[in-house]
Write a structure and sequence with these properties.
Glycerol-3-phosphate (1)-acyltransferase, about 10% strand, alpha/beta, 7-stranded mixed sheet
Length: about 375
């Protein structure tokens, strides 16, 4: 594998770690981050910690693991997971998950892998999220693969081929597992669908044998479920505006979403590692007309994710609130319903616009996973 070919998108290599870690440790913003992670401790604690690490494993275990677990301790009730027992710790996989939070989906995955003795994965992240030099240093030390999104059609095509080759080499050569979201951008409405464009990108580096090419990627769909949807009111607002005009992100909006996702209370979180896409399924897809193959494979993955999505009382309550029904009243208590109704009212209280419409959009974010699960079973 020619490292220089992938120099702009791959994580930092051994020769680049030291300089990157030095830049990170000397950045003044670390004093603020340290105050959040280690309240009451010496302000330079985090800088000293970063300076002391020698490699990516130490950075992940001593810095990132501590940071993410602090976030989980402060903003969640419980993190649970299932399905990992079906995976081989010695094998490398392509984890493709639904996408609910900009940063936390992949970050929490790493915590789960680390704490269960699995090798952590590299993570594909859009270049729009790493425009700041500090963020790029932290991300690429933390095994980030940069996904180029802001370029013209010719450059996008070339970068897609490069990304496809890189992921295939890493997974098929058993060098590293990789995580990538099922779509470009987070799910806004609670409906999780694998974009065919992602599958076509992965196929770009193949030999033309559909079953073999996807088989060597060892795809494991992952369903990610939050009790309280990260950035729920921000997502509802975006949908509301998009119904009226083209939605254009404001300056700093991605950063605001990252911070909101981190700081917002998320309640319970569950990750389910689905069955690996098998050869029989890939063979059935390969018999179809070319474009239908990708749709069929995406449908298989979506059924995996939707059927194993962990539903919370909020999902059932939202459905009944939307429909003025008590269909799922056996799935929640009156206390839970009262609590969620107050949460919804609080979230939409300051919205300037059609309150009934934003309420419906907001509730659908929570009800749609239930509707999708019903269709997939």
């Amino acid at each position: 594998m020619t490292e220089d070919k992938y120099a702009d998108i791959r994580p930092y290599n051994d020769q680049e770690y030291d300089a990157a870690l030095a830049r990170i440790s000397e950045h003044p913003v670390l004093l603020k981050i340290s105050a959040f992670l280690f309240p009451g401790k010496e302000p330079t604690l985090l800088s000293n910690l970063v300076s002391s690490v020698k490699n990516v494993f130490e950075f992940q275990s001593k810095v990132m693991l501590v940071a993410i677990k602090k976030i989980l301790d402060d903003t969640t009730t419980k993190l649970s997971y299932s399905g990992l027992e079906k995976l081989n710790k010695e094998k490398r996989y392509l984890f493709i998950s639904n996408h609910r939070d900009i940063m936390l989906d992949s970050a929490i995955l790493q915590v789960i892998l680390f704490e269960t003795g699995m090798s952590t994965s590299e993570m594909a992240v859009g270049d729009n999220l790493v425009t700041d030099p500090l963020l790029e240093d932290i991300a690429r030390v933390n095994k980030m693969i940069k996904v180029v999104r802001s370029s013209n059609a010719r450059e996008m095509y070339a970068s897609s081929i490069l990304l496809s080759e890189y992921i295939r080499n890493k997974v098929s050569n058993e060098e590293s597992s990789v995580w990538i979201a099922q779509r470009n951008g987070r799910t806004k409405d609670g409906v999780d669908i694998t974009e065919q464009g992602l599958l076509k990108m992965l196929d770009m580096s193949g030999t033309g044998d559909f079953s073999k090419d996807f088989g060597e990627l060892s795809i494991v769909p992952v369903s990610v479920s939050y009790e309280y949807e990260p950035c729920d009111i921000l997502k509802a607002r975006e949908i509301y505006i998009s119904r009226r005009q083209k939605y254009i992100k404001s300056e700093g909006e991605d950063l605001n979403s990252i911070l909101t996702g981190i700081m917002q209370f998320k309640g319970n979180i569950h990750f389910n590692f689905c069955d690996t896409i098998n050869s029989e399924e890939l063979e059935s897809c390969s018999c179809m007309e070319k474009n239908l193959r990708f749709k069929a494979l995406g449908d298989i993955m979506d059924r995996r994710v939707n059927s194993t999505y962990h539903l919370w009382p909020n999902n059932y309550i939202a459905y009944d609130m939307l429909n003025g029904s008590s269909k799922y009243s056996d799935r929640y208590s009156k206390i839970e319903r009262d609590k969620f109704e107050k949460y919804v009212s609080f979230k939409i209280a300051d919205f300037e616009g059609d309150v009934d419409e934003i309420r419906e959009i907001f509730l659908l974010i929570y009800a749609n996973p239930l509707l999708c699960k019903e269709k997939s079973n």
